[in-house]
């Protein structure tokens, strides 16, 4: 059953990821800086995931020590370094440019999947990748921004995209040994510890203790937009090609854009709507291919 609906699991994860900006803005009202916001969200998610495993199946907390370096990669590189590089890109360029550079991730995933997992590059997959990427560019309005971007900024943005792609690839490797929930939990434990050290444990605790009234919504928001989507995405990777899952995940850009329209009265132009159509078209192509294979 889960195999048949795995593309839907990815779409559900993107709908939740798309709301991440809402939570980031809310946690930001706690007078937290970029690193503290990331640390708070990751800490909440890590605690939640550990509690879930303690209640549901404690055996899933067992891993082999020799595999721990893989979790260091997913936690430090895929989450922490990705967050830092993405934040730096948004500081140097506008958000639309940062988002597009982040979503070069499917290109990296496709290349690594061909080399590591021996996936075949089909015309449908190539067309879907092109549609989703160009669609993302239209959705965020990069063609109308008229902004010149320095080579250093592009490089940092590509680092964010590469780090983002590593979770999909390494997650696929780890799924051969561990349950998806185990992978997500240890990834977030490592990421939470690393981000807390970067943000400063005492400073982060001070932010939380100064705004206890905002903590309940911060907890709910972090679980819904960080922990839960990673659980769904990792479960989908069990049954899907990593490249296809990564391309479908670009729907996050569409979801975030639609949330902006509904919650912040942002307007969609004809190019934005065209971009949404292209991303949806890419998903339909991959969904039809997936159903045909299964």
UniProtKB/TrEMBL annotation:
It comes from the Bacteria. The chain crosses the membrane at residues 37-56, 68-86, 98-117, 124-145, 151-171, 183-203, 215-233, 245-264, 270-291. It holds the Pfam family EamA. The keyword Secreted does not apply. Keywords: Membrane, Transmembrane, Transmembrane helix. Residues 8-140, 153-286 form the EamA domain. Belongs to the EamA transporter family. This is DMT family transporter. The lineage of its organism: Bacteria, Bacillati, Bacillota, Clostridia, Lachnospirales.
């Amino acid at each position: 059953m889960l195999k048949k609906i795995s593309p839907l699991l990815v779409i559900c994860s993107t709908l939740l990821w798309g709301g991440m900006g809402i939570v980031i803005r809310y946690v930001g009202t706690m007078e937290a800086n970029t690193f503290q916001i990331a640390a708070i969200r990751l800490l909440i998610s890590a605690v939640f995931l550990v509690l879930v495993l303690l209640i549901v199946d404690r055996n899933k907390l067992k891993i082999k020590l020799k595999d721990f370096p893989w979790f260091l990669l997913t936690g430090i590189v895929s989450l922490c370094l990705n967050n830092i590089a993405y934040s730096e890109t948004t500081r140097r360029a506008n958000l639309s440019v940062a988002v597009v550079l982040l979503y070069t991730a499917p290109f990296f995933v496709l290349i690594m999947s061909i080399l590591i997992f021996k996936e075949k590059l089909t015309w449908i997959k190539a067309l879907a990748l092109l549609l989703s990427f160009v669609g993302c560019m239209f959705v965020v309005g990069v063609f109308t921004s008229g902004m010149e971007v320095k080579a250093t900024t592009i490089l940092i943005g590509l680092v964010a995209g590469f780090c983002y792609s590593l979770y999909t690839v390494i997650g696929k490797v780890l799924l051969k040994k561990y349950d998806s929930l185990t992978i997500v939990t240890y990834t977030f434990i490592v990421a939470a510890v690393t981000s807390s050290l970067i943000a400063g444990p005492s400073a982060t605790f001070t932010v939380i203790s100064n705004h206890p009234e905002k903590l309940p919504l911060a907890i709910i928001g972090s679980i819904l937009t960080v922990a839960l989507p990673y659980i769904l995405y990792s479960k989908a990777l069990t049954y899907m090609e990593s490249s296809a899952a990564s391309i479908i995940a670009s729907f996050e850009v569409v979801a975030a854009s639609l949330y902006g329209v509904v919650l912040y009265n942002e307007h969609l132009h004809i190019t934005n709507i065209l971009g949404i159509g292209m991303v949806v078209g890419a998903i339909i192509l991959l969904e039809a291919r997936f159903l045909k294979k299964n």
